Amino acid sequence: MRVPLLWLREYCDPPLDVAGIEERLTMTGTKVEAVLHHGVRSPEHFVIGRVVSVEGHPDADRLRVCEVDLGAAHPDGPATIVCGAPNVAAGQTVAVAQPGAVMPDGTKLAKAKLRGVVSEGMILAEDELSIGANHAGIMVLDELAAAQRLAPGQPLTRALAIETDVLELEITPNRPDCLGIFGVARELHAATGAPLAPPPWSTDPGSAGPVDDATVTVECPELCPRFTARLFDGVAVAPSPLWLKARLAAAGQRSINNVVDITNYVMLATGQPLHAFDFDRVAGGHLTVRRARPREPVQTLDGQTRTLDGEMVVIEDGDGPTSIAGLMGGARSEVSSSTSRVLLEVANWNGPNIHRSSWALGLRSEASSRFEKGLAPEACAYAQALASRLMLELCGATLLPGTIDVGTPVADPPPIRLRAKRLRSILGMDVTTERQAHILRALDFDVKRDDADGDDERLLVGVPPLRRQDITREADLIEEIARIAGLDELPATLPARRGACGVLSVQQRLRRRAVDALVGCGLYQVMGWTFTSPDSLDQLRLGEDHPLRQVVALEDPLSSDQSLLRSTLLGSLQTIAAHNRARGVLSLGIFEVGTVFALDTGSGSAIGVREHGALGVLMSGPALPATWRSSDPPKADFFALKGVLEALAEALGVSVDCIPANPELYPFLHPARAAEVLCGGEPIGWLGELHPLIEAGDGAHGGVSPAAMELDLDALVASAAIRRHDYRDLISFPPLRRDLAVVLPERVAAARVEQAVRESGAPMLEDMRIFDVYTGPQVGANMRSLALALSFRDPQRTLSDADIDPVWTRILAALGELGGELRG
Amino acid sequence: MIDRIAQLRAQAGEAIAAAQDTEALDQLRVHYLGRKAELPLLLRDIGALPADQRGAVGRTANEARKAIEALISARSQEVQAQELSGSLLADALDVTLPGTPPRPVGRMHVIAATQRELEDIFLGLGFTVLEGPEVETVHYNFDALNHNPNHPARARTDTFYLRTEAGPGDSAGEREPSERLLLRTHTSPMQVRAMEAHPPPLYVVIPGRVYRPDSDATHTPQFHQVEGLAVDDDITLADLKGTLLAFARAIFGDQRDVRLRPHFFPFTEPSVEVDVSCFHCSGEGFLRDGSRCPLCKGEGWLEVLGAGEVDPDVYAHVPTTERNAPGYDPEKVQGFAWGMGVERIAMLRHGIPDLRLYYENDVRFLEQFGA
């Protein structure tokens, strides 16, 4: 909201500069977002002048050479000013900018030679002062000069507001009263203690009672709690006076004509929007407020036809709808230069309903943005009073007797009890009841002292009409006190804790450990977008029924690229890898911890959404940087990634197994280099090299597709509950180590070999590791040799060869059952 | 005889001194001290000497043998040192070649690292950490947090609602208005969920990803918040100030100050915005050279978060159950809540100019942080 400081100071004028006012408003809850400047920049160069003589320019038909009396501002006699305006004439009082003047747009005026004649300034038109749009001629200030006894040489600021600072305020949604400048002035009054002028609506030339010739029916009082109207006759529609134009311009409003300008001016002053009808064009002299019919078309002021629904409200006359209530008037009854009778509507509309209608129709205006906050019905009378006075003063109008006022007056709500004890306990600081009462009265509350209950002092507080939406409870009053009493005086204390202490849960510690382990593996953590596109699912070669297609869609995505919630982290990992590859990063190891989503169609009638924390890793290019000693390090492949998986499992203290992945379930993986990852026998994810078809075959990976994996982190962490770590004696007695090499059919998976050895070697076998794999002529076709390093331990004694012979025999037998033979 | 011994000793001494390698020394050892060498033979035959000569000759020969051994041993050490040094020099490196890098260390993402740091600060202040779902209902995201039915944040332009109908005209997928699904617009829904799950007193922080349909240099449609909630029977606005002062100093430096500015949020009353004194200009608004501080734009303060005392109506939305008994009676409990943006804090601290950099994940960006 734009508040011209000159206008604000008319109501409340504290002895503070603009920075001081900014500080007080900001620190009491009306944040000043910016201080702008409207109008000229060097007011001392703008003066009143009187045109002494006007002569034609010797070398230009359209220019005149004027002698202008500038009084003391140009002591050596009249100044010569070249002027192009057709309306300039001797004897006029005019506004003059002297050389050195800085105009509203920042340009600086210099003495100029115009077709050979030196001009010592400029006679000003409205637009040159940013007062209006009029550039048809210069401003003639004769009437102002007579009224205010202006003399040549006096500063122009005595006649016109040619410059003002403008506060750009952030008005929070609970304060529609501050969408009017007098509301802001009241805040400034409370915040500074400077006196507040009486409200501009305090004198009302109008009267109550019915209005002859005009009637109004409200069919939907729940959506229109109050509708008031007054009728003016003999209205002379004309341009507004300069002061009104200047004010509207500073507040960011364009001047239209005096009637429309009055409605805008009153809205800016009070926060209550108004609408002026040309009463002679209101068919039947009767207005009806009713709900629109479903799909009812209405033509609005902007010439568009809009289709309404049954929740929207129209105002219609004998010929049908003329406006959409609270949003936009109709062209048919618009005020024009021929208007002589004006029906001035000031109504109160249901805020949520206006909000809904304005969003549904895409119609937002200064009026709707005020109505939707929920205005006070009482404000209708305030706006009628101020507008009536201005209609009489500025339009030469006659106010016909009576005021149409449809609606049930709202009873005053009971006063609110404010306990000093409660205030102290919420804020943590003391504010005396005297100060409380002082603050509340400054904010227009009615304050009485309640009978004290013991030592607990209490106030009874009546809420003024304009604040009744916002202030309904004691907590709201406490906020009013807090913001004016000064939060800067609040002490900084810590809660008086009773026995609580902050610790991470086991799952949180494990999740952190997982991240740390991956960082320790040299991987970079990334954060991708939760949003993904339908295309990305196709790129993963997912079949129609693939579970990752059970994807959640947004109702209003920012773009189709961001229309879905990701069901896998793979897409964003690939996107990030591609981004970096395009920038020359060929060796990349990244991981992401993030949420993935899936539609849950299983449970009951309503469709739900399942989400879980996932962990994804992608490695591409060389696993280690190339150096001069090793210029071609191996590419990250399945086993490089499996090493990461094992390090992760080790860090979390879980055991995971890889089994060959079913290519139909994982169409995005290399069909022969992919594994399903099991934890406790349950699948928790996948690991593998990406299918060449989902990766652009640009050869950037040196023939090896990136390897990736994705795990259900929640499931992994759940199975990894931090165990007790009891001490084991690994020092007193040494282990006994033996190696063996066994030749087995190739189809026997290493995991089966390991399982056979571990089971048959228990409990003495402490560890087993495969340290070599050989295939080739020495072991024969379809066979391979595995070299195993075994380690045995007995916690009670040092083992001898003889001790493990029985175990050894069992192990060899178990390997034999798998088709294995000891290799010579 | 004794002369001969002295002669041998002198000869050996010269030869040993002249020996240049271990091999030569070995030969000299054999030559002078070996089984067939003159000196040992002489000692062996000492019995053949007249009795009066044996003592003197034996002593002299023994001394000579020891002396020669000592010389060989000493020279041998010298020669070995020379040989080692020679062989080491032969193995010379170009010390100016680059070293072999150790296995590179990875990085946490700057958002994750900042979030963890924030969690740690509040853990230290006695808060526990909770996470919540990113898909929420209108009830938890707005209704239970006291948002008016016409609060602008509810608009489709300000909130991502989810499509949950299976197809056009599918009534099975329709939900009650308050049960409509959306991507949470803040971490605050977890305030109510936390109170439903735990009795007071409650001290929690809730980090997490949140969503709003905005996209430019200062807004991304996803971002991260850390919510805080403290409810007990005596938690004041002054306690909020003290808690956030501790946070501000931990994150932005020991000299920082905080100020509370009145504001409006539907779920706190009183509501405040919290500013931290600018760490770039020490809150002066101007730098030493007199120019306006570019970080706080001359304000001296940086807006960091929104907060307030929990609105009594929020407690009223928390049903009392077995899990949280005795429940949250607005007349008996009071507390504060805040919500801070992780991106904003990281942006301020590291001078990151554009929020979109966080989600581009260029490694040249990532490697600067999170070590």
What does this structure look like?
- The complex is a heterodimer of chains A (824) and B (371).
- In chain A, strand 31 (656-660) and strand 32 form a beta hairpin.
- The longest helix of chain A has 17 residues, at 379-395.
- Chain A is built from 19 helices and 38 strands.
- The termini of chain A are far apart.
- Mean pLDDT of chain A is 91; it is low at 697-701.
- A seven-stranded mixed beta sheet of chain A has the order 25-29-30-34-33-32-31.
- With 824 residues, chain A is an alpha+beta fold.
- Chain B is an alpha+beta fold.
- Chain B folds into two domains: 2-90; 110-366, Bira Bifunctional Protein, Domain 2 (BirA Bifunctional Protein, domain 2).
- Chain B is 38% helix and 18% strand.
- Chain B has helices spanning 2-18, 22-33, 38-44, 51-90, 110-124, 138-141, 189-197, 237-252, 312-316, 342-350, 357-360, 363-366; strands spanning 128-129, 135-137, 162-163, 181-183, 202-211, 222-232, 258-265, 268-277, 301-310, 334-341.
- Chain B has a seven-stranded mixed beta sheet, with helices on both faces.
- The longest helix of chain B is centred in the first third of the chain and has 40 residues, at 51-90.
- The two termini of chain B are 82 Å apart.
- The relative contact order of chain B is 0.11.
- The model of chain B has no long low-confidence stretch (mean pLDDT 90).
- At the A-B interface, helix 7, helix 10, helix 12, helix 13 and strand 25 of A face helix 5, strand 1, strand 3, strand 5 and strand 6 of B.
- Strand 27 (552-554) of chain A pairs antiparallel with strand 3 (162-163) of chain B.
Task: Map the helices and strands.
The complex is a heterodimer of chains A (824) and B (371).
Chain A: E1 2-4, H1 5-11, H2 18-27, E2 31-39, E3 46-57, E4 60-69, E5 79-83, E6 93-97, E7 112-114, E8 117-119, E9 122-123, H3 142-148, E10 163-170, H4 181-192, E11 215-218, E12 226-233, H5 242-250, H6 258-270, E13 275-278, E14 286-291, E15 297-299, E16 305-307, E17 313-317, E18 320-324, E19 342-348, H7 351-361, H8 366-371, H9 379-395, E20 398-399, E21 404-406, E22 416-419, H10 420-427, H11 433-442, E23 446-449, E24 458-462, H12 474-485, H13 506-520, E25 524-525, E26 531-532, H14 534-539, E27 552-554, E28 564-565, H15 570-582, E29 588-600, E30 608-620, H16 638-652, E31 656-660, E32 669-679, E33 682-690, E34 707-712, H17 713-718, E35 736-745, H18 750-761, E36 765-774, E37 783-792, H19 801-817, E38 821-822
Helix pairs in contact in A: 1-4, 5-6, 6-9, 11-12, 13-16, 18-19
Chain B: H1 2-18, H2 22-33, H3 38-44, H4 51-90, H5 110-124, E1 128-129, E2 135-137, H6 138-141, E3 162-163, E4 181-183, H7 189-197, E5 202-211, E6 222-232, H8 237-252, E7 258-265, E8 268-277, E9 301-310, H9 312-316, E10 334-341, H10 342-350, H11 357-360, H12 363-366
Parallel strand pairs in B: 1-5
Antiparallel strand pairs in B: 2-4, 5-6, 6-10, 7-8, 8-9, 9-10
